[in-house]
């Protein structure tokens, strides 16, 4: 008799959600986690703490730039960094403890320690051996650095160190204009740090809709972020108090260097599989060192599954959660499914950037006939009332059938607004379906309807 129906290794958004869903489906389940808190990278050193700092620094920005305009007078707030970090830590604690509560409520066993798969039906944690009919690998990812760059998490930091710097640095070089670099870069820029982003490619946020990227970069530059594009970082030399970043411009091989109090390396993440015993078991991996799975998240060993950042696909907490639910349902004998075509992406800067479905570039490459409906937040009364008129919504729909193929937006609450389109796409809706749906006034959501109208006869407030 196995101790468990399922043991999940990793308590991040993929693993803990999978555990709870397994329990809800009547399976006896345990979740193994070694970091001392549940929630994984997302809750401890990723999404949630960065959102706390983004909120705090955005509030400062509002006080500095918009309060007086609304008749809110008073001195400019000063930053108590210790207190801000304390607020962020409280947010982490409340959320991670919340998951422990959910585990108790759902009767999920929380096994503390680092797990190793010692047989196809066995997970060893310290001296304890646990048997399971099914094992789910949900071990996530870790920051990947560059050759010639040594991270000390003090002067040269990854996203982890950037969330707990001892003070607000006077200057920061961010290597990589991806999601992490831009979110953390804008936190520090708003707190007064001189931020320079060095990016290898010629555009920021690779893979996003090109038009959005251009507008986004312009807005960030207006907020004070400096960009050095088309620059390959060659190495970083650090002392105790500063670091020098050397880079080469791709267009002319010109070499240059930048000095800063802090360097954030944000050049991507890699799957975390250390110490799991996968090689000994013969678990197949991809060329990019991800755990290889089939369409049902099963590895080449029948009883072992894998989900989240450790497998192929976007490294996003909500993608991992969806896979966690689907794999639980699959193990319980149901038909677990994830629609990879409708996974939203959000960048939580101010304004936010959000997208779902295909970009214009992808549709062009495919040779698909499409139409574009665009609407600027300048035409949205609510956005104008709260100084958030910068940005726009773009809906892409099939030219013949009007079916929504994608949506890309930059503007207020973009990360919330995008879900209207996710639901529409899940239901195979047309742009006209959205345009004919009554949207409350005055809301930012009206901009979504206007963009949908622009796919047809035209937006009203354009
Ligand atoms: P990323 O892959 O999004 O961006 C890395 C950037 O670094 C790329 O633009 C790349 O061209 C650049 N780069 C690589 N080598 C370079 C070099 N030598 N010199 C200059 N530039 C170089 O990676 P990032 O931002 O570290 O994020 C990692 C993962 O975490 C991503 O999959 C991201 O989706 C996820 N994430 C998502 C968040 C969200 O959804 N809001 C928040 C934070 C992370």
Please give a quick description of this structure.
By secondary structure, this protein is α/β, with parallel strands linked by helices.
Description:
With 462 residues, the chain is α/β, with parallel strands linked by helices. The chain has three domains: 4-142 and 270-331, FAD/NAD(P)-binding domain, CATH 3.50.50; 156-267, FAD/NAD(P)-binding domain, CATH 3.50.50; 345-454, FAD/NAD-linked reductase, C-terminal dimerisation domain (Enolase-like, domain 1, 2-Layer Sandwich). The chain contains 14 helices and 22 strands. Helix 3 crosses helix 4 (81-106) and helix 3 packs parallel to helix 6 (179-190). The mean pLDDT is 97. Bound molecules: 1,4-dihydronicotinamide adenine dinucleotide (NAI). 1,4-dihydronicotinamide adenine dinucleotide binds at residues 146, 175-181, 183, 198-201, 206, 232-233, 266-269, 314-316, 345-348.
Helix content class:
25-40%
Strand content is 15-25%
How many alpha or pi helices?
14
Under the CATH scheme, the architecture of the largest domain is 3-Layer(bba) Sandwich
Bound molecules: 1,4-dihydronicotinamide adenine dinucleotide
Structural class: alpha/beta
* Quaternary organization: single chain
The largest pleated sheet is described as: 7 strands, mixed
Radius of gyration: 23 Å
If you average the pLDDT, what whole number results? 97
Highest CATH level, the class of the largest domain? Alpha Beta
- Span between termini: 67 Å
């Amino acid at each position: 008799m196995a101790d468990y129906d399922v043991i999940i290794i990793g308590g991040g958004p993929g693993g803990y959600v999978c555990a709870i869903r397994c329990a809800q489906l009547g399976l006896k389940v345990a979740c193994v986690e070694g970091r001392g808190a549940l929630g994984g990278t997302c809750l401890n050193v990723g999404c949630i703490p960065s959102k706390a700092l983004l909120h705090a620094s955005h509030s400062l920005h509002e006080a500095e730039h918009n309060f007086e305009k609304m008749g809110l007078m008073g001195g400019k707030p000063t930053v108590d960094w210790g207190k801000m970090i304390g607020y962020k830590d409280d947010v982490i604690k409340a959320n991670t403890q919340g998951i422990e509560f959910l585990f108790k409520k759902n009767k999920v066993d929380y096994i503390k320690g680092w797990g190793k798969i010692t047989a196809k039906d066995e997970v060893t944690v310290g001296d304890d051996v646990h048997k399971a009919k099914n094992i789910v690998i949900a071990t996530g990812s870790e920051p990947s650095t560059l050759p010639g760059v040594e991270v000390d998490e003090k002067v040269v930091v990854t996203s982890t160190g950037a969330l707990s710097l001892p003070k607000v640095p006077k200057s920061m070089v961010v290597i990589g204009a991806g999601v992490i670099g831009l979110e953390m870069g804008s936190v520090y820029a708003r707190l007064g740090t001189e931020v320079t982003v060095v990016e290898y490619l010629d555009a920021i946020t690779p893979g996003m809709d090109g038009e959005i990227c251009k507008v986004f970069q312009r807005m960030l530059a207006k907020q004070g972020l400096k960009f050095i594009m088309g620059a390959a970082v060659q190495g970083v030399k650090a002392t105790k108090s500063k670091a020098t970043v050397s880079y080469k411009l791709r267009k002319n091989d010109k070499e240059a260097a930048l000095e800063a109090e802090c360097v954030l390396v944000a050049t991507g993440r890699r799957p975390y599989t250390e110490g799991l015993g996968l090689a000994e078991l013969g678990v197949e991996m991809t060329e990019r060192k991800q755990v290889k799975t089939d369409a049902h998240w099963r590895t080449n060993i029948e009883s072992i599954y894998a989900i989240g950042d450790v497998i192929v696909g976007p490294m996003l907490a909500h993608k991992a959660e969806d896979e966690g639910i689907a794999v639980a349902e699959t193990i319980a004998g149901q038909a677990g499914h994830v629609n990879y075509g409708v996974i939203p992406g959000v960048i939580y800067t101010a304004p936010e950037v959000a997208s779902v479905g295909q970009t214009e570039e992808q549709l062009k490459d495919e040779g698909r006939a499409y139409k574009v409906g665009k609407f600027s937040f300048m035409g949205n009364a609510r956005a104008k009332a709260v100084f958030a008129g910068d940005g726009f919504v773009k809906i892409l729909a099939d030219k013949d059938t009007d079916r929504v193929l994608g949506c890309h937006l930059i503007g207020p609450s973009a990360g919330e607004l995008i879900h209207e389109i996710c639901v529409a796409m899940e239901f195979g809706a047309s742009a006209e379906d959205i345009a004919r749906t009554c949207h409350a006034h005055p809301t930012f959501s009206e901009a979504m309807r206007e963009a949908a109208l622009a796919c047809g006869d035209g937006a009203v407030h354009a």
